[in-house]
Protein: diphosphomevalonate decarboxylase
Organism: Sporosarcina contaminans
Amino acid sequence: MQAKVKAHTNIALIKYWGKRNEQLFLPTNNSISITLDRFYTTTSVTFQEGLTADQFMLDGKEIQGMELQKIKTFLDLIRNKANKQLFAIVESVNNVPTAAGFASSASGYAALAAAASKAIGLNLNEEELSIIARQGSGSASRSVYGGYVEWQKGEKEDGTDSYATQIMPADKWDLSILSVMVEAKEKKVLSREGMKRTVNTSSFYQAWLDTIDEDLIAARQGIKNRDFELLGTVLERNALKMHATTLASNPPFLYWTGATVDVMHEVEALREEGILSYFTIDAGPNVKVICQPKDETIVKERLEQLNCVQQIFVCHPGPGVEYL
Ligand SMILES: O=C(O)C[C@@](O)(CF)CCOP(=O)(O)OP(=O)(O)O
């Protein structure tokens, strides 16, 4: 019983930044993302009689320890749902340069959820798949779909109403997403830890929650009306608010470096010249700059001129889970 799947990573425009339930990966607020065309994970899963334990190969290397344990725990979800006690061989290849500042957990768990459920004989619909992927990594719930996606936080304590749905397919609106690499060092505070500390200690966290709905409304409208200025303005504001919460945490922390801020200022300068571009930043120093395809070349050239910029990866909206 085998299946092979390709799932793409995504970039959040309205951030998932906090859980109300750690065990079930239930978020405090809805989030909105774009699934990207360029970076993806390909995963094959083979459930096999006779295996006495799960095996996990990542980029050709056998993985042991904590990472293997996470895969086993995740496969238990699938086994329980299918009521089958079979072990599996999981082989994943990440086409997500870790240096690119994208979390491969989103594409990784979306691909694993789809390949494992298919291989064990479950025919899940996209919402059911999103619910399973969410329990590997929250942002993976969004990579089930292509294009513009919203993850509804849900209200139920069992998480059965916390899954993503597609707002608009990738081919309905082309945007350029430039992933600007300023440094490739491992980030000190991983997003899981970062959001946990913020929820538990940040004096700005309630303000984040109090203003998230207006951001979601504006982002939905911006996408549906293909209004780039509206979407860009709100995604940049939302990223800044997310990072403001980390400054008011205890202990405080900041993902940015001087290079991060230099890129932010260059984006602002481009806008003042009438070249619409907006930035968003996740749990690290690298910056994602979003512009319209007509401005992609000039924006890329201007950012490349900054000494602090090491590399720029250009992406566009991409597809959801693909069964190979
Ligand atoms: O992607 C976003 O909405 C915003 C972030 O990237 C950070 F800026 C959070 C991603 O968190 P994730 O890695 O999914 O956490 P997990 O559920 O603890 O695995």
